[in-house]
Design a protein that fits this description.
Blueprint: E1 4-11, E2 25-28, H1 39-51, E3 56-58, E4 73-78, H2 92-106, E5 110-115, E6 135-136, E7 142-144, E8 148-151, E9 153-154, E10 170-171, E11 199-202, E12 210-212, E13 217-220, H3 233-241, E14 243-249, E15 257-258, E16 260-263, E17 273-276, H4 293-310, E18 327-329, E19 335-336, E20 342-348, E21 351-357
Parallel strand pairs: 2-3, 2-4, 4-5, 5-17
Antiparallel strand pairs: 1-21, 6-13, 7-12, 8-11, 8-14, 9-10, 13-15, 14-16, 16-17, 18-19, 18-20, 20-21
Length: 358
């Protein structure tokens, strides 16, 4: 016979009959509204408003909205000219928000940090300051006719090495953040100099010129002294900080650069953090249209949705479909028809309870 133990988690609905909903996502911006003088940040924020009409915009004057029980994931996007490298040079409005974000992620909330926001990782308690991102750009950039890509097939140089260790090739293309994105095959005419597939992110399809600001903010894995064991610098980084490197520059074949990193929960920081410091993820090129903008929007939406589902603190996405009926969800917010052997959340009459079934 199964034994069921219950722990009340409180009322979460004002109305008993509702339809299925996505976990709430939010974006912290550095201005009073999404229309501001910063073209890059404004373009990203306006896309967020369109893509997530039920999403929450958090302004510097409204930090009280940063609540792990109410919001599944928060996106922080900082992309500014001449800002200067290092957390201390971040805009004051984001530094002022750091204590609230730290509490949020410690309690189980999920964060997406993009571009210069990756410099917040150590202030959030996830790495030491000595291991902050060391590859940085905040200049004017320039024009070019190549396509900037993202490589999620790490260690591809091993395909050229005789008797190579296959466990040192890390295929991260199956990660949910890449779902539905256009992927160029290895050795295609478009990327004939790559021994791996790659995701095009920024450029034109006809070879014409486009201006890019080149604002990278990520990790040079060869620049640190690692205390953890590993077959290479990538594994040492991952083992030292309970993280997974998900992507790098399109042309990189070794383990030297971590461009997208997923920091998994720890005992003290219960939430997940994905940091993406790739310059290719630019929202407002000054000249020409970005042919591959849809890859950027899919990557962003995938990341936010993935992180929102990772937040097991928030129960705002659990709903009751029929009044009076008890429905069950796992801790990722997915409905379960017949729960058994595990921890679940039951919802009935507008109230949720955490149950343990043995």
């Amino acid at each position: 016979m199964k034994k069921i133990f219950t722990l009340a988690v409180g009322a979460i609905f004002g109305v008993a009959t509702m339809t299925a909903a996505e976990p709430t996502v939010a974006m912290l911006i550095g201005y009073d509204n999404t229309s501001n003088e910063n073209a890059q940040e404004s373009a990203a924020a306006k896309w967020f408003e369109t893509a997530y009409p039920e999403g929450v915009i958090i302004t510097p004057s409204d930090l009280a909205k940063i609540d792990a029980k109410e919001i599944g994931a928060i996106w922080v996007h900082i992309d500014r000219l001449g800002m200067g490298m290092g957390y201390d040079n971040l805009p004051a409005e984001f530094k002022d928000a750091t204590p609230a974000l730290k509490k949020y992620v410690e309690e189980g909330g999920s964060l997406y940090l993009s571009k210069h926001a990756t410099q917040m990782v150590h202030e959030l308690g996830r790495i030491e300051a000595a291991y902050a991102p060391g590859i940085f750009g905040d200049g004017d950039g320039g024009a070019g006719n190549d396509v900037w890509c993202l490589n999620a097939y790490l260690g591809s140089m091993m395909t050229y090495v005789a008797d190579a260790d296959p466990t040192q090739i890390y295929d991260r293309t199956t990660h949910p953040i890449y779902d539905g994105m256009e992927l160029w095959d290895a050795h295609s005419e478009k990327i004939s100099d790559y021994p791996h597939p790659a995701y095009p992110i920024l450029g034109t399809a006809d070879g014409s010129s486009i201006h890019r600001e080149d604002h990278n903010c990520m990790w040079d894995l060869n620049a640190y002294t690692w205390t953890a064991e590993g077959k290479n610098t990538l594994e040492k980084f991952e083992n030292q900080y309970n993280c997974v490197v998900l992507g790098t520059w399109g042309h990189v074949q070794d383990y030297c650069v971590a461009g997208i990193v997923e920091f998994k929960p720890t005992e003290t920081v219960k939430g997940s953090i994905i940091a993406n410091g790739l310059a290719a993820c630019e929202w407002a090129p000054r000249t020409a249209n970005n042919t591959y903008h849809s890859n950027l929007t899919k990557l962003t939406a995938n990341t936010l949705n993935y992180l929102a589902e990772k937040n097991t603190t928030s129960v705002s996405n659990l709903v009751q479909d029929v009044e009076g009926e008890t429905v069950y969800y796992n801790l990722q917010g997915v409905r379960v028809a017949k729960p058994s052997n595990g921890i679940f959340i039951s919802v009935a009459n507008g109230k949720a309870k955490k149950i343990v079934i043995k």
